[in-house]
Design goal:
The chain is an alpha+beta fold. The protein has helices spanning 7-28, 30-72, 75-78, 86-98, 124-131, 182-185, 230-237, 262-267, 280-283, 289-296, 337-340, 342-388, 404-426, 429-438, 461-467, 470-490, 516-541, 575-590, 598-603; strands at 102-109, 114-119, 139-144, 153-160, 166-174, 199-200, 207-216, 220-228, 246-250, 256-258, 302-306, 313-320, 330-336, 445-458, 494-499, 502-507, 548-564, 567-573, 594-597, 608-616, 625-633. Strand 20 and strand 21 form a beta hairpin.
Length: 647
C-alpha cells in the first residue's frame, strides 16, 4: 500500500527538513561538504582557464593557416614572380604584422626557387647583432633563383626599413635547396599535417613550429611560416592561478613548448650546448602522469589528484589544440587546491553559523504557512475527487483562500466541475471518466478492437410526429431516449449517438468489457421491458405507444475520434457497424423486434434463447449471413412462435 500523508504535514515537513537539513548539514558535514564544493568550484574555474587558453592558442594556429591560404592564392606566388616584386613583399609584410607570433613567411618551389621575408622585430637585439643586420632595418628579404645544373646558386639578401625601403643588399653563393628541407619534403605527403614537430630557434632561443601549406598553380610549391611562442608564454604567465599554479603547452612526447618560465629555462643552457625542449618532469614540481594518462585514455578532462610525497591535493585540466594537427599539441593547467580557494575556506565557518540562524528563525513561519495552505488544499482535493467520481447530487460552494493562487485555483476547480459535467452530457460518460482518470486528451484517430454495436429505431415515428405538436414530440421522445440510455448504461454500454429517434450504442469501448456480447443482449431485453412500461404510461397520457426495433452485431471495428481539430466525435466505424445498422430494418420484413447476427448468437447461445430466422444478403454485403431473433434469457424461455417473412 502506497504511503500517503496530509498536505499540511508534507509541506511543513518538506520545507522544515529541507531548510533544517541544509543548515545542519553545513554544521555536521562542514568539512566534507566544503571540500566537495571547493573541488567542484576549482574544477569549474580550472576548466574555464583551460578552455580560454586552448582557444587562444588554437586561434594563433588558425590565424597563421588562414594567412598561408591567402598567400598561396596570390598570382605572384602561383606564377613564381618572386624577384624584384615590391608589391608582393608589401603584402607579405602586412601579413606578418597581423600575427605577433609569426616570425617569417617563405615559399619554396619545385624547381628550387625560394623566397623568404623575416620580421626582424621578433628576434631580439642579440639575434640582430649575431645576424649583422643594419640598425634601422625592420625586414630581411632573401631570394634564390631556380636550380640549374651547378650545385650553388646566388642568394640575394636585402634589408628593408619599416616602409620596405631598401637599406642594404648582399649577394652570395648558396647551396640551400628548399626541396631537400623537411618542411618542404614532408608537406607534399598527403598524410602529413600542416604543423611540423616543435623546435628551438637558434637565433631567438625560443620554441616554435613551422606551419606549411602546399599549393598548385602555374608552379607547384609550398608556402610556410615559423611561429615563435614568446607571446603565448607571456599569456600563460598572465593567468592567475595562485602562487604555484601553472599553465603549459606540451606535445605527445612530453616536450614542453610553452611555459611561464620557458625563456629563463632555455637561456640557462650551457654555452654552445644544443638547444632542446625540456620535458614535463623538468618544468613541474608535481607528477601529472596519472591524470594525463587517464585523460588520454578517454577519461575526464578535469581531474583532482594527490601528490604522494606531501599529500597535497592538486586540480588539473587538459585540452587538445585541434588546429595544431600532426604536432599533437596539448595544454595542461595545474594548481594546488588549498592555494586556489584559500579565501573560500576562511569564510566557510561564518557562512555555516549564518545559515543555522536563518533555519531556526524560519521554522515557526514555515509551520504557520503550512497550516494555512493545508486547509484550502484539503478542500480542493475533496472537490476534485467528487468531480472525478461524477458526484453531482448537490452543488458545492467554491473553495476560497487568502492566498491568491489557491483562491484562483478554487474558482478554476468550480469551473472545471461545470465543464466536465456539461461535457459528459455530449460525450459518452465512460469516455469522460476515462479521460479525467488518465489525464489524457481527445485526439483524432482510432484503434481496431472487437465491439458489439446496437441500432434501434421507432416504427412509424414519422406518422406520430405529423399528428402531434413538435414540443410534445420532443418531450415524450426525450423520455423514451432517457429510458433506453439508462438500460444501456446499466448493462455496461455506451450511448454513441442519438440519430433523431434512433439510438446507436456500443459495448467494449471505451472501457474494456470481456463479456460485452452478453451484456449487450441483456441490455436489449432490458430496453424492451423498459419500453413496455413506458408505453403503459404513454397510454394513460393519451400518447401513442412506441414500438422499437433492434439490430445487434459483434465484430471488429475502428474505435476512436473523428472530425476536425475544433469539433470531434467519439464513434466506431467499419463493416461491423454497417451490418448492425442493416439488421434493424429487417425486423419489419419478419415481424420481429430484435434481430442479431450469427456471431452474437453463437457467442452467448448457452445464456440466451435465439431462433434462427433466415439467411439473407444485406444491402452492401457480398456474403449471405444468418440472422436470429433474440427472445429471452435462458431458463426464461417463452413459448415458440413461427417466423413469417412479411412481404
Amino acid at each position: 500500500m502506497r504511503l500517503r500523508v496530509s498536505y499540511q504535514l508534507s509541506i511543513t515537513s518538506m520545507v522544515g527538513v529541507l531548510v533544517l537539513g541544509v543548515g545542519l548539514g553545513l554544521v555536521v558535514l562542514s568539512f566534507d561538504r566544503a571540500r566537495s564544493i571547493t573541488r567542484s568550484a576549482a574544477l569549474t574555474f580550472i576548466d574555464r582557464v583551460a578552455e580560454h587558453t586552448a582557444d587562444r592558442v588554437d586561434g594563433e594556429f588558425k590565424g597563421v593557416l588562414d594567412t598561408l591560404e591567402v598567400l598561396a592564392t596570390l598570382p605572384a606566388i602561383t606564377s613564381s614572380a618572386i624577384a624584384n616584386n615590391p608589391p608582393l613583399y608589401a603584402v607579405m609584410a602586412a601579413l606578418l604584422r597581423r600575427h605577433a607570433q609569426l616570425y617569417n613567411l617563405y615559399v619554396g618551389y619545385d624547381d628550387g626557387a625560394y623566397l623568404e621575408l623575416d620580421d626582424l622585430s621578433r628576434v631580439g637585439d642579440a639575434a640582430r647583432g649575431q645576424m649583422g643586420t643594419p640598425p634601422d632595418s625592420a625586414f630581411r628579404l632573401a631570394v634564390i633563383g631556380k636550380a640549374q645544373e651547378q650545385q650553388t646558386r646566388a642568394q640575394v639578401t636585402q634589408y628593408l626599413s619599416a616602409g620596405l625601403a631598401p637599406i642594404a643588399r648582399t649577394e652570395r653563393e648558396t647551396d640551400y635547396d628548399p626541396r631537400g628541407r623537411p618542411w618542404y619534403r614532408t608537406a607534399i605527403d598527403d598524410t602529413a599535417g600542416a604543423v611540423t614537430a616543435p623546435y628551438v630557434s637558434v637565433l631567438t632561443a625560443l620554441p616554435g613550429y613551422t606551419v606549411r601549406l602546399p599549393f598548385q598553380g602555374d608552379r607547384h610549391g609550398v608556402v610556410a611560416g615559423n611561429i615563435l611562442l614568446a607571446d603565448i608564454g607571456a599569456f600563460l604567465r598572465a593567468q592567475q592561478l595562485g602562487a604555484s599554479g601553472v599553465v603549459l603547452l606540451f606535445d605527445d612526447n612530453g616536450r614542453v613548448v610553452a611555459h611561464p618560465r620557458m625563456a629563463s629555462v632555455l637561456h640557462q643552457r650551457a654555452p654552445g650546448g644544443q638547444l632542446e625542449l625540456p620535458h614535463l618532469d623538468q618544468m613541474l614540481d608535481v607528477d601529472i602522469t596519472p591524470p594525463l594518462n587517464a585523460w588520454m585514455a578517454g577519461g575526464a578532462a578535469e581531474q583532482i589528484f594527490s601528490r604522494a610525497t606531501d599529500g597535497r591535493t592538486y586540480v588539473a585540466a587538459f585540452r587538445s589544440v585541434p588546429s595544431a594537427g600532426s604536432a599533437h599539441l596539448r595544454l595542461a593547467v595545474v594548481a594546488p587546491l588549498d592555494e586556489f580557494f584559500a579565501a573560500v575556506e576562511a569564510g566557510r565557518r561564518r557562512l555555516v553559523l549564518l545559515a543555522l540562524g536563518v533555519v531556526l528563525g524560519t521554522l515557526p513561519m514555515v509551520w504557520w504557512i503550512g497550516s494555512r495552505l493545508s486547509r484550502s488544499m484539503k478542500d480542493l482535493a475533496r472537490e476534485t475527487e467528487r468531480i472525478q467520481n461524477f458526484e453531482t447530487a448537490s452543488p458545492r460552494p467554491e473553495v476560497r483562500s487568502l492566498i491568491r493562487e489557491i483562491d484562483d485555483l478554487g474558482r478554476s476547480v468550480a469551473t472545471m466541475r461545470t465543464v466536465v459535467l456539461t461535457f459528459a452530457r455530449f460525450v459518452p460518460k465512460r469516455l469522460v471518466q476515462q479521460l479525467v482518470t488518465t489525464g489524457a486528451a481527445l485526439r483524432l484517430g482510432g484503434t481496431r478492437r472487437e465491439v458489439t454495436v446496437l441500432f434501434t429505431d421507432i416504427e412509424g415515428f414519422t406518422a406520430i410526429t405529423e399528428k402531434a405538436a413538435p414540443e410534445q414530440v420532443m418531450i415524450q421522445t426525450s423520455r423514451y431516449l432517457g429510458v433506453l440510455s439508462a438500460a444501456i448504461m446499466e448493462h455496461g454500454g455506451t450511448v454513441d449517438k442519438f440519430i433523431g429517434d434512433a439510438v446507436m450504442a456500443i459495448w467494449n469501448a471505451p472501457a474494456d468489457d470481456p463479456d460485452h456480447v452478453a451484456h449487450a443482449c441483456a441490455a436489449v431485453l432490458a430496453c424492451r421491458t423498459a419500453i413496455q412500461q413506458l408505453n403503459a404510461a404513454f397510454e394513460q397520457e393519451g400518447w401513442p405507444a412506441y414500438r422499437t426495433r433492434f439490430g445487434l452485431h459483434t465484430g471488429e471495428a475502428v474505435v476512436g475520434t473523428i472530425g476536425s481539430a475544433d469539433r470531434m466525435a467519439y464513434t466506431v466505424l467499419g463493416a461491423t457497424v454497417n451490418l448492425a445498422a442493416r439488421l434493424e430494418p429487417l425486423n419489419k420484413d419478419y415481424g420481429t423486434d430484435i434481430l442479431v447476427s450469427a456471431e452474437v448468437a453463437e457467442r452467448v447461445s448457452e445464456r440466451f434463447v435465439f431462433r434462427l430466422v433466415d439467411t439473407v444478403r444485406p444491402r452492401g454485403f457480398q456474403e449471405p449471413i444468418r440472422i436470429f431473433e433474440l427472445n429471452a434469457v435462458r431458463d426464461m424461455v417463452p413459448s415458440p412462435r413461427p417466423i413469417h417473412r412479411v412481404r
